[in-house]
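From the pipeline queue, job 12 of 40. The input is one protein chain; the requested action is below.

Action: predict structure.
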Amino acid sequence: MKYWIKLLPALLLLLPACDKKYNLDEGILGEKGEFAYTVRYDSVITVTEDATDYNFAFYIKVLSGNIATNNLTCSLDGLPAGATYSPSSMTVGHMLGGVFPMNIGSLAVGNYYYRLKIYSEKYGNQFYNSVLKIVPRPDYAPTLAAAYDSSFDYCNLSGLAFYKTVATTVADTPYLLRISNAHGLGSGVVVRAWVGTGIVTIPAQPAGSKTIWGSGTYSEDARPGHAGHYIVEIKDTLATISDTDNCTMHLQRGL
């Protein structure tokens, strides 16, 4: 009995040490140096040539250890000239990820290779490959090519006018439409219009004895019986030496 009494103080001294070793409130899994993680991100980014911005997002999954004491410094490496991002780097802790807003400027169609760079004290620099693919934007001009037999305009000076017009594509020139009899000015008056994603632009050009320019939008015709048809609405200006008429060109098919 006296033997156990003598050992009791020594056993009590061991209890705090045991409690500290298994203190789960600290959020530490394993001993120091056992931190491990994986990263998830888009390794292939595809955007059209008219895009100017992209948000590069990445996500960190902690496999073991505590990221709060093993912060990761992340950045992008090897972006092509003309492309930028901000901030230049970010430290990832409890948020477990981040977003780099990228400005891709006016990069030409092609593939551009770069890397996500992640630095940690345990692993040093780690690189994760990615490719930015710039592809030609879709050509919607063929979608709008049609005979618009129920078109009409309203102009500030000349008022309301109804007419028929035909929009046709141009061989070997994507995105371009030729609109004949624009504003009802005659079949010989053909206006060039560039088609983008949801937009139509008429650069300044002669239209008979006038000069025309403007821009607008197009959308699917929601009227019954017009499935697959589109309505084009362009706010344009018709100018002569003596006056300027502000108009809205409305191209549609059928009643």
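Job complete. The chain has two helices and 17 strands.
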